[in-house]
Amino acid sequence: MKECSTPLDSVSFNTMIKACTRNADVAAAAHWFEEMQKAGIEPDLFTFNALIATATRAKDPLGAE
Fold this sequence. Notes:
This protein is mostly helical. Helix content is 60%, strand content 0%. It has helices at 10-22, 26-38, 45-57.
């Protein structure tokens, strides 16, 4: 995503996290969350809901904390 000319925003990162939800990939979702924070973009309610949904789908209750 860093190579594209479109500015990254919360929608961009939330879309990537949501894609991880569909695959139940907690590690990838955490990666995109960290990248979001590094980019200085504030997570929103959708971000946290997507992270919780990813952990739930992966059957990882500790990941939802």
